[in-house]
Amino acid sequence: MSLLPILRFPDPRLKRVAARVESIDDKLRRLARDMAETMYEAPGIGLAATQVNEHVQLIVIDASETRDQLLTLINPVILEQDGLQVCEEGCLSVPGIYDKVARAERVVVAYLDLEGAERTVDAVGLLAVCLQHEIDHLQGQVFVEHLSQLKQQRIRSKLAKQARITA
Ligand code: K2U
Ligand code: ZN
């Protein structure tokens, strides 16, 4: 297994829309394993293939306290969403930036698991937030793009300054 490099906002590759998975093969299973390892090591509670520059509809999530309930979702689709919650979000592609984002309180997501079986997950709270956050990534959207233009400009300036310092 390998740790994968994570793209950093505002890398334009984070705006690419991921393609549907047509075949669940060893290459995809290897990618899913490497994404899970990368997520646990970051540490994070979710990771989308887009973030590791693999533009396929694949996400891994583990929002459990015990960090032993890995969800691997292929071709995820939100079937239902209701309610509203505002949650402080971060992103492994936008290190050091946290802000509140309004999202649905509950989502029902249909997806394929690694065996190709059709499944659904009915989620509320942090898991619902994470599912929406990761599905956004597959559509080329980073959470900061839900914020005001002024906040986005300030974030871009801060990240550009960080990049100059660490270059
Ligand atoms: O970058 C990512 O996509 C992983 C995200 C997933 C996430 C963001 C906001 C809210 C829930 C999940 C995070 O970086 S994982 C780190 C984290 C953990 C708990 C709460 C917020 C952020
Ligand atoms: Zn993210």
Descriptive labels:
single chain, 167 residues, 3 helices, two-stranded antiparallel ribbon, 5-stranded antiparallel β-sheet, globular, 7 strands, alpha+beta, binds ligand K2U, Peptide Deformylase, 26% strand, binds zinc ion
How would you sum up this structure, described in words?
The chain has helices at residues 26-41, 125-138, 149-166, and strands at 46-48, 58-61, 71-82, 85-89, 99-103, 106-112, 118-124. The longest helix has 18 residues, at 149-166. The protein is globular and about 45 Å long. With 167 residues, it is α+β, with helices and mostly antiparallel strands. The strands form two sheets. The protein has a five-stranded antiparallel β-sheet with strand order 1-2-3-6-7. A two-stranded antiparallel sheet has the order 4-5. It starts with 25 loop residues before the first helix and ends with a helix. It binds ligand K2U and zinc ion. Zinc ion is lined by residues 91-93, 133, 137. The active site is at 134.
Short overview:
Belongs to the polypeptide deformylase family. The protein is of the alpha+beta class and 167 residues long. 29% of the residues lie in helices and 26% in strands.
